């Protein structure tokens, strides 16, 4: 995500060599979603470069490979899971959580499979699960079953809040594209562990996006007062201003929790010249 084209030359310097791009992103935010690991397990050398570009307290929330979650449905996954865990070792404490995003077909009847999978995972990492089947949000028995299963292994439940985005019809090409691809998820705001993770999808309008996240400002402030360490990722349909919006969210939380440390100062970006 830190190589997003819309940020180059505007939020981060351009051109930048590959081994410097994450370093510049880390000047804006203190955590990142590792979505590319869903499509392919990176090499240890690549992951070592990520570690070299970030401080030890920078957080990666890395998605498990799709061969584990979507193709083999959490069964017979020892080999690809072992390869993935070996590859991310260079991150050390930066591997904040391993993100188990399950397909919409994963239903309450499959929770027993998830429970077996979670019990076999090494305790050297924290884990967080994202589900998309509507029953987990509207059926109280399914909600309770999944929450108990996750809590038994100190696994977090990641909510993906798309309610603001779907509150009004799309008005741009980026919004129309996201309208067909993003899940319409009911709102959930309960934390199961001391390190909750939230994914929030806004819209093109930054003020609407900000208005929609105010409930999360209150929730995150409460979590901080309880001694938890939450992470919230801000998305929009094109993500062009996502780092700016993430910092705006952080400022909103700091207004309620003044003791919260400020984010790092972003690197200066020199305008492009012809010479």
Characterization of this structure:
- Pfam families: DUF72.
- InterPro entries: DUF72, UPF0759_sf.
- It is globular and about 55 Å long.
- The chain contains eleven helices and eight strands.
- Strand 6 (160-161), helix 8 and strand 7 (197-201) form a beta-alpha-beta unit.
- The longest helix has 15 residues, at 242-256.
- The protein is an alpha/beta fold and 275 residues long.
- It has two domains: 1-157, TIM Barrel (Alpha-Beta Barrel), CATH 3.20.20; 159-258, no CATH class.
- The mean pLDDT is 95.
- The strands form two sheets. A five-stranded parallel sheet has the order 1-2-3-4-5, with helices on one face. Strands 6-7-8 form a three-stranded parallel sheet.
Mind describing the biggest β-sheet? 5 strands, parallel
Could you say how many structural domains there are in total?
2
Q: How many distinct helices?
A: 11
CATH class of the largest domain: Alpha Beta
Shape verdict: globular
Query: Main sheet: which strands, in order across?
Result: 1-2-3-4-5
What's the multimeric state? single chain
Radius of gyration: 19 Å
- Per DSSP E runs of 2 or more residues, the count of β-strands stands at 8
The residue-averaged pLDDT reads: 95
Terminal CA distance: 30 Å
What are the secondary-structure elements, in order, as H or E? HEHEHHEHEHHEEHEHHEH
Query: Helix fraction?
Result: 25-40%
CATH-derived topology of the largest domain: TIM Barrel
Structural class: alpha/beta
CATH superfamily of the largest domain: Protein of unknown function UPF0759
The amount of beta strand, in percent, is 5-15%
Low-confidence stretches: none
CATH architecture of the largest domain: Alpha-Beta Barrel
């Amino acid at each position: 995500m830190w190589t997003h084209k819309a940020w180059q030359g505007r939020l981060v310097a351009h051109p930048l060599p590959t081994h410097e791009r994450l370093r510049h992103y880390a000047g804006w935010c203190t955590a990142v979603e590792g979505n590319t690991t869903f499509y392919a397990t990176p090499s240890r050398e690549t992951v070592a470069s990520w570690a070299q570009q970030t401080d030890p307290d920078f957080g990666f929330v890395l998605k498990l490979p799709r061969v584990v979650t979507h193709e083999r449905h959490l069964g017979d996954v020892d080999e690809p899971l072992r390869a993935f865990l070996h590859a991310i070792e260079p991150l050390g404490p930066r591997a904040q959580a391993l993100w188990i995003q399950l397909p919409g077909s994963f239903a309450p009847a499959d929770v027993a499979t998830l429970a077996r999978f979670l019990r076999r995972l090494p305790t050297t990492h924290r884990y967080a699960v994202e589900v998309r089947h509507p029953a987990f949000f509207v059926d109280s028995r399914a909600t309770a079953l999944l929450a108990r299963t996750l809590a038994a292994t100190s696994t977090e439940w990641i909510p993906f809040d798309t309610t603001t985005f779907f509150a009004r019809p799309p008005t741009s090409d980026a919004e129309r594209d996201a309208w067909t691809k993003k899940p319409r998820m009911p709102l959930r705001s309960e934390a199961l562990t001391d390190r909750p993770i939230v994914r929030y999808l806004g819209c093109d309008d930054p003020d609407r996006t900000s208005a929609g996240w105010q409930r999360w400002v209150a929730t995150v402030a409460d979590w901080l007062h309880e001694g938890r360490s939450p992470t919230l990722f801000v998305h929009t349909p094109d993500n062009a201003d996502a780092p700016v919006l993430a910092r705006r969210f952080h400022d909103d939380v700091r207004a309620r929790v003044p003791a919260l440390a400020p984010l790092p100062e972003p690197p200066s970006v020199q305008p492009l010249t012809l010479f």
